[in-house]
Amino acid sequence: MLRRTYEGQDCSLAQALEAVGERWTLLIVRDVLLGINTFDAFIEELGISRNVLTDRLNHLVACGILERVAYQQRPVRHSYELTAKGRDLTPVVAALMQWGERHAAGPEGPPRRTEHIGCGGPVHAVLTCADCARPVANEEVTAGWVR
């Protein structure tokens, strides 16, 4: 969660960053995509403090990105599952991982990759034109006003 609001900014990216712009948020979403979805598993995987994790999970639930699901009654324990809104972050996570593989991975290569459940092949984020359905190179993209 960003520490300021975007009053007066008519920008969907700024509004999206209010929901997912905090440094741990997309790592939590990535972990849920990897099948890591319990509080203790997040602590172990991320090395995040308990209070920060509690805050981030509550924020993601409040934003409708994750849903808390009880999987044990005594004591009550929850897992965190992606909602449809959260699942819509899959291409964002895949694109950021792809960027990291290309520009930030060490000499041994990336430690993780996104995979197609159907065949196990690597998944790559690709931009396509909504009108002609052709792939679009990064250099062919600009941002413009709709209204």
Tell me what the structure shows.
The structure is a single chain. This protein has helices spanning about 10-20, 25-35, 40-45, 50-60, 85, 90-105; strands at about 65-70, 75-80. It has one domain (about 10-140): Arc Repressor Mutant, subunit A (Orthogonal Bundle). A hairpin with a 4-residue loop joins strand 1 (about 65-70) and strand 2. It is globular and about 55 Å long. The relative contact order is 0.10. Helices cover about 40% and strands about 10% of the residues. By secondary structure, it is mostly helical. It contains six helices and two strands, in the order ααααββαα. A two-stranded antiparallel ribbon has the order 1-2. The mean pLDDT is about 90.
Instruction: Report the helical percentage.
Output: 25-40%
Low-confidence stretches: none
| Strand fraction | 5-15%
* Gyration radius, in Å: 17 Å
CATH topology name, in short, is Arc Repressor Mutant, subunit A
CATH homologous superfamily caption: Winged helix-like DNA-binding domain superfamily/Winged helix DNA-binding domain
Q: Count of helices? A: 6
Give the overall average pLDDT.
90
Overall strand count: 2
CATH class: Mainly Alpha
